[in-house]
Amino acid sequence: MLAAAPASVVVAQTPRTISLRIDNDAFDFWMLPWNRPDEEYSSGVHITYDGGDAPWWSRRMLRQLAPCTTSSRECRMSRAEIGQDLYTPATSMTNPVPAVGSRPNAGWLYLSQTAQSLRTERSDELTLTLGVTGGPSLGKFTQTLAHSVAPTFNRPSDWTGQVEFEPGVVVRYEQRRRLGVDGGAIGFDLIPRLSLTAGNVATNAEVGVQARTGLHLRHPWLPRDGPIEIALTGGISARAVARDLFLDGNTFRDGPHVGHEPFVGSGEIGVQMRFRALSLAYRAVTDTRSYAAGPKWHPWASIVGAVTFAR
Is 43 a member of any domain? Predict the structure, then answer.
């Protein structure tokens, strides 16, 4: 009996995922390279670690849940992320100076931690983010370095008018629900979501919905093993904006600013592939005008690579 036990018992493991997400309007592959924008939300690099127990500051709230394993139906987990986002005005080789009314350059370098409460039909996340804008965000350094790779191909950039240094604190809550069809080779689910964000960098409320369908569709947030997965995604969202530091300028000092539009919409489509521990995803996004002189639409895209391991 003791010899047979290991072969008949499935051991639940604690999953951990490391992912790298790169956002850039240079990834608008449906456009010719020289026609792709290099403006607005121009670039983002995010390194994320998902796994382990919920952060210490959230465990009292989540004490009824156990840490996640690959067999959990209700559990708690944490996420840590370090990232940098860059925002730039529109320029070109022939017009290197931004037009009047263009947004200022801005960089955002941050570190965040998220407490996750995960159930089969519902996900709740509370995220605390600390970061900096201005020179310490390294926005000018990062873009100058990236553009030096192909200077004749990249548009010029001038960071003399960037948003100044300011420490940032942001608190964000997001709830997602899942309406899905499990079982079989082809799956489908619909995921409505609501988020509230408050802080000196951003204050807004957002609602949206995402649809997924594909081969061997895995659960969208509970950790699950499975065969190869190919998923198609699409979604829309609407955001009511009360404050956007990258458009409204610094909180405690005067500086470049253009103001924000009160409502911003987004649409996206994407594809994701997973094979064993590896996954790769591509997502194309378009945002509506975010300030008075901004473009009516701004397209950008993401590439996400991830590896999952368990112990």
Answer: yes
The single residue listed with the structure tokens 């690959």 is 70
C-alpha closest to that of 259 among 247, 271, 251: 247
CATH number at residue 29: 2.40.128.140
Q: Given the structure tokens 């397209």, which residue do they identify?
A: 299
Determine the structural domain holding residue 62 and report its residue range.
Answer: 14-310
CB 34 within 8 A of CB 26: no
> Do 88 and 159 form a contact (C-beta atoms < 8 A)?
no
Instruction: Indicate the helix (H) or strand (E) that contains 30.
Output: none
Integer Cα distance of 300 and 305 in angstroms:
17
pTM assigned to the model: 0.91
User: How many domains is the chain partitioned into structurally?
Assistant: 1
What's the token pair of residue 194? Answer: 């609501």
Inter-CA distances, 105 with 12, 53, 170, 185, Å? 48, 38, 20, 47
H or E stretch including 139? helix 139-147
Summarised one tens digit per residue, pLDDT across range 207-233 is: 999 999 999 999 999 988 888 999 999
Q: Where are the beta strands (DSSP E) in the chain?
A: 15-24, 40-51, 74-88, 106-119, 122-132, 167-177, 179-181, 186-199, 202-215, 229-244, 263-275, 278-288, 297-310
Q: CA–CA distance from 191 to each of 98, 178, 237 (Å)?
A: 39, 5, 12
pLDDT digits (tens, 9 = 90+) for 109-155: 999 999 999 999 999 999 999 999 999 999 999 998 887 776 666 66
- 193 lies in some domain: yes
Please indicate, yes or no, if residue 4 is contained in any of the structural domains: no
Token pair for residue 68? 């996640």
d(CA 138, CA 143): 9
User: Is 6 contained in some domain?
Assistant: no
> What residues contact residue 183 under an 8 Å CB cut-off, 6+ apart?
none
- The single-letter code of the amino acid at 1 is M
Q: What is the DSSP secondary structure assignment for residue 120, as one 8-state letter?
A: S
